[in-house]
Amino acid sequence: MKYLIVGLGNIGDEYRQTRHNVGFMILDAFAKASNISFVTERYGDVAHVRLKNKQLTLLKPSTYMNLSGNAVRYWKEKEGIDINNILVLVDDIALPFGTIRIKPSGSDAGHNGLKNIAAMLSTTAYPRLRFGIGNDYPRGGQIDYVLGAFTLDQRQMMPTRIDVAIEAIKTFCLAGIQIAMNTFNNK
Q: Given 20, 60, 76, 161, which residue is catalytic?
């Protein structure tokens, strides 16, 4: 069985450690823990890993956040992956820092990456893992906040929270979305 795990983020060093790039951070940690490397291919950096009897394609789109759907659609079709076996990792300002919320579908909640994926797949019915980045910003400061760096306290907690996200990804692939939701939502 094949899975496509998509970490959303923006390419470039200036975005590397920003809140908006948490999807890239999770996949980088997953790849490091799996002793695999990303290779630049069409529409993004890609790595392949086996997880028991599952084949996972990890994708960090190189299309910038607002055009992530092009990469998702391409790799979904190239690898022949069912839409229910796609998991999109995305930052979420509506959740407290480090909170994980897995859902089988839903709205884009104003997130341009999710909006473009829904447009390219012609559906909002694809699984996603939302990683809370909090919303401690002044009115009108959302863009600066999501494109800003994590606080020192958040950076210190990040490895533990990323490990939880990696376990959630593994559970999604090995046991299914319902068990992943029951195990990791609100933890």
A: 20
* CA torsion angle 187 184 112 127 (round to 10): -170
Domain that holds residue 107: 2-184
User: Helix 22-33 to helix 152-175 angle, to the nearest 10 degrees?
Assistant: 70
Q: Is 48 a catalytic residue?
A: no
Q: In terms of pLDDT, which residue wins out, 134 or 30? A: 30
The CATH number covering residue 61 comes to 3.40.50.1470
- Region of poorest pLDDT, from 11-20, 52-61, 87-96, 98-107: 11-20
Query: Taking 90 as the threshold, does the pLDDT of residue 114 lie above it?
Result: yes
Residue of 31, 46, 16, 9 whose CA lies nearest to 169:
31
Residue 140 pLDDT class (50, 70, 90 cuts): confident
Domains contained in the chain, number: 1
Q: What is the pLDDT of residue 53?
A: 94
Cβ-contact 50, 60 below 8 angstroms = no
Beta bridge partners of 2: 55
Asked if residues 131 and 89 have their Cβ atoms less than 8 Å apart, the reply is: yes
